[in-house]
Amino acid sequence: MFTNQTLEKSLLAIDHKRISPMDFISLLPVHCQRPEEPRHKAVKKILDEKLLPTHLEVACVIPMFSDDYYSYGQPYSVNGNTRKFIWNKYPDSIPTENLHVTLYYPSSRNEVEKIYRSIDSSNSVESSGHLIGGLFRSNGYVPQSRKMKAGNIGVSIRHAYACITGNSRIYGNELTFSDIKGKIEFNFLVDEIKFVDGVILSYENEPSKNKKYTTGPIMASLIIMAKKYGVNNPRLQELVDHLINNKIDKHEGVGGLNDGVSVVNIDLYERYNGVGSRQWSLQSEGFGPVIIGNLIYCFDAFMNNTLININRSNSVKGTIMKDDKAILYMRNYFAKD
What is the second-level CATH architecture of the domain 14-119? Predict the structure, then answer.
């Protein structure tokens, strides 16, 4: 399979070979390889959609040592192990072209691990933040705030897109942000994302206690509001000002009435800031929509100058919908128009 594999090599030596997919399938993975089973379905969808040249590129090590796992001069696969798993499980998916293999020559197990982690690890692959940064660049947009420059808005964009389009699968467990073809959610919301970037930039140097507006649910909710009412809406600017400055307006009324942003500032933030596992900043599939549903309910009331009846039985101080109702409110928000 590989020639000259018993010759001594420097750690910095790099060779390139061509081997058949079947030969690659037969290789043992490096000892620190993560499990393939949990990831193979998502990878198979990508391979089934269209085979790309990068899908034919793999890396191997040929150890210049022996121990209880490695045999001197024998190849072990570094990456491509999920593809190997898929090709072994689904023979019809095996490509007909030979693979391009990059070979490395570690002299210890520790060097194997370092090579592996530089190629096939969370530090070397494209993260959600990298993906968002690439989308900014491809759209000719230079983000202004530190948070946006880091690309820390991926889940917020997905939640907002799901709300606006009524596609609950996007914030369910079946589809991840990076799976959405064409990244259409970013292109659909680019003006609103720029608006939120400006909001964060205006206040990112404030004390940390005033930074709840930079959390995922807040960013998603502001994107949703901007999409519905327009990024240049003066009332939306007023909403942001009241939110960021923790402004609370007292209103007279039977049962205790308050405007939506005041309810967020006095009630929602306290309710979801560190209550068990339900953190205010949590934007996961399970609980993110609950907070967002309540936020857009309050924000929409503010936009329409509608006072909210404070129902103390459902919350700490003000009106908070129960989880299932909040999720339904988010799902049906744009459908009501």
Answer: Alpha-Beta Complex (3.90)
